Amino acid sequence: MITEFIMTATQTVFTVLFSVFPNLPPMPQLIVDGWDWFINLLNSANSLLAYFLSTPLYYMAIGLIVFMTVFHYVYHLFVRFVLFRVFMLFAKR
Amino acid sequence: MTRFLVPLRSGLLSALLLISSLAVSLSPIMSSQVNAASAWDSSVIRADSLILQEGGGSTIDVTSTWVSRIATSPGSLTTGERDAFESAYLAGNYSVSLYKTTDGYGRLYVNYYSSTKNIIPCGGSPYAACASPASAVNGFRMEDTSTISYGQIMMYYNGSDTFVQTGTFGAMVAAVFSFGSIQPFEVGFPVVYPPGYNGTPVQPETRDKIYPKILYLVAEYDFTANYVGDTIIPFNQVNQVCTLDQQPMYVTYSILASGEIINSRTLKCDETYNFKLPGYDNYELYVVYTNATGEIIGETDNYILNASIMPFVADGSSYTGANDGSQGECSTIDNMQVCEQVSPYEDCSEFGIDLIGGFGCIIKNFQIWIKATAMQLFVPRTSYFNGFSQTFGTLVESKLGFAATAYSMLVDWINSLIFVEADCTPTLGGGTFFGATMNYNFCAFEQAAPTIWTPLITIARLSIAAGFVFIAYRRMLEIIRGLGS
Fold this sequence. Notes:
Chain A has three helices and no strands. By secondary structure, chain A is mainly alpha-helical. In chain A, helix 2 packs across helix 3. The longest helix of chain A is centred in the C-terminal third of the chain and has 38 residues. Chain A is flat. The relative contact order of chain B is 0.09. At the A-B interface, helix 1, helix 2 and helix 3 of A face helix 1, helix 5, helix 6, helix 7 and strand 17 of B.
C-alpha cells in the first residue's frame, strides 16, 4: 500500500516531466537487429569458451580482462575525489 | 589523461582479440557445417530456407509463396536435455521454429509475416484467401489473428496433405509430431497428445541450468472465466498455479521477440519453468490452455510485454507480489490433477484445553498475520505492479526512444558476459539481421573418446589456470610498484 503510493507518485512525476519534453527518436532497427545478432554471437562464443575452459576459468578470464580497467577507474576516482579531499582538508589547517 | 585511457584501451584490445580469435577459429567449422547440410538433400533445402539440425532430421521445402511443407526424414535426433531451437526464413515471409523436447516429441511453429511486419490480409476472411493457394498441394492450414500488430499465422500438419479442420482459435496453434519418424502421429485440433505424453517435463536440474535475465510470472488467473487478466508481472519464472475449481490443464507458454518464438514450454499444474530471454526488445507472451486430452479450454491469451526496457527489470531482479499466496497441494483424482489452496494459518482448535499449546498456536498465527500485513503494506500487489510496469515501461520507451534502447543494449551486453552457460552446441545466426540459424557441435570429441578427452582437457585447463594466476601475479606487482612510485 505504501509502496504503491510511492510508485504512483513517482510515475506521476515522471509523466509530468516527460510531457514537457519531446519524444526522442527510436533506435534504428538496423542497429537493434545488428546488436541482437552480435549478442547472440557473443553468447555462443562465451558458451563455447566456458565449455572448453570450464565456467570458473571463464569467469577468471573475464575478470583478468576487465580487472585493470575497472581498477584504474576506481583507483583514479578514489584518489581524485576522496584522498584529494582529505588531503585538502589537512592542508587548510 | 593518458594514464587514465591506457588501461581502457588495453582492456578493449584484449576483448577484441578474444572475439577475433574465436571468430577465426569458428570459420572453418562454419563452412564445413554448411557443406554437410547441403549434402542431406539439396533438392529440398534452399539457401534462404536452411534449417540445420544436429544429427539430421527435418527439412523445409518451399513449394509455394504461401505455404511451406514440413517433412521429417528418418534419423535419430539427439534428445538430450537441451531443447533444440531452429529457425529460418522461408521466402521472406516465414519463420519456422522447431522445438525438440526431451521426451522425443516436438512442436512446430510457423510464423508468417510480410517484410513490413504486418499481417498480410487473406482476403475478406482471415482464412479464405490463405487457404486457397495452400489447399492444392500442402498440408498446412493458416490461421490469422488480426488483433496484434504483427504476429503468427499458424499452420499445422496432420501427417497427410490435407487440411486439418479448425475452429476459430486464437493466436497460436502448435503442431505436435514425433521426431525420428517419417509418419507423424495423428494430430487433430484441438491437439490430441499421444498416450503417455504429459507435456514437457521440467526437471529440477534443467531449471538450475537456466540463467534468468528478464523473466515473467503468470499467476492468479481465473481459469473458469477464461480470462487471465492483468496478472503478468516481471519475475524469474513462469509458474502454473492451481486452484480448486481448475480443470486439469496443460498450459503452453510461448514468448516471442520480434515475431519469433524464443522459448516455449508446456507446463502441468504446479510446474515451473524459467524463461530465458535475450534481454531487450518487446516480447509477446502467448498462453494456450488445454486439458489432459489436448482440448483447448478457454481462449488463447496474448500479451504484449514492454517491460524489457525498464532498468529495474532488465537487471534480472525478481519480484513477488503481496497477493501471491501458497500454491497448495496437488493430487490426482480420476486422472485429473486437482490442487487445493492451503491456508497459511494453523488450526488452533485442535489444541482443545491445552492452553499452552493453543497460546503458542495463536502467537504463531499472529506472526503469520504480521508478516502478511507487512507484505500488504510494503509490497505492491501483483496486478498493480504489472500495470505499473507496463505503463511506466511504455512511457519511458516512448519518451526516451533510442536512449532507453541503448541502455537495454548495454545491460544486455553486460549480462551476456555474466550469465554464461557452458555449451558445446552453440547456435549462430538467426534473427532478422542474419537470417538462417546454424548449429554447431563441438561435443564430438568428448563423446567419441571420453577417456582421452578428460585427461587432456584437465591438463589444458590446469595449464591455463596456472597462466591466469601468473598474469594476475604480474598485474598485482605492477599495481604495487605503481603505488610505491
